[in-house]
Write the structure tokens for this entry.
Amino acid sequence: MIENFSVIFLSIVLEALPFVMLGAFISSIIQIYVSENTIAKILPKNKFIGLLAASLAGLVFPVCECAIIPITRRLIKKGVPLNIAVTFMLAVPIVNPVVLLSTYYAFHSKPYVVFIRGGFGLLAAITIGFLTGIMEEKKNPLKPSFIENDSICSCGFDHSYKKQKSKFLEIVQHMNMELYDIGKLLILGAFISAAFQTIVSRKYILLVGEHSIYSITAMMLFAFVLSLCSEADAFIASTFLGQFSLGGIVSFLILGPMIDIKNTLMLTASFKSRFVIKLIFLVFIICFIIGYIINAAIKIGVIQ
């Protein structure tokens, strides 16, 4: 049992680590050199073009997950329409080169998972952003009492070194902070996944995992609780292949980067509770529908 646990745990950590480091490095460069003003100017204000551009922004701005909510908050304050800002917030952690590359590497035996995750992730972000815009209309989702603190970077860290001359040193320190924050979650996620597959009888896992509805629900709740980094979550998800339905695994891969315990706490700090509840509800519903559609497609032979 200990041997099996060690193999699963170490394989997850070692496979995910290079992508976590790459993601943290690229994200740190963007955090130092690209401001919210730049992003706000690039995103079109047109309702439909803006949604599409926001959903694809992660291909150019693969920002770390700890930064996406503070950046979104500032974009809304700068006048970016709510539906576009929400789409940007939900899509960037999924539709970006590092995440898609890590997903391809984790699911090398099923490379089409990359397209399913990217395509449905993009569709989910646009749909939720569009619905959020309709539900909130012209209401401001930010808390009235929220005061912007300019000494805090958009990633949420207090950078006392911000005034230093060396940009390289800023990138290194920013990357170190992100790796420390993300690394803890990666180790915790790998530990839980390895323990779950080692301790729990395969009979009971399959009882839930093979059910088209239970598997989706279980994997979505798993993603919400684990709060993994999107550069590493594919390696956790891939260990459940053959045990949980593909629809459940894809729901895990899409919901986790959009909303989890960590993101919920960050949202409630600066957004109104009404808005946060609606957003969480929409994310769970849309991700469940996506998982169900994928499981239905497998049953009729559209997906092998």
Remarks:
- Residues 167-199 form the longest helix (33 residues).
- Confidence is low (pLDDT under 50) at residues 156-162.
- The radius of gyration is 19 Å.
- Residues 67 and 155 are 4 Å apart (CA to CA).
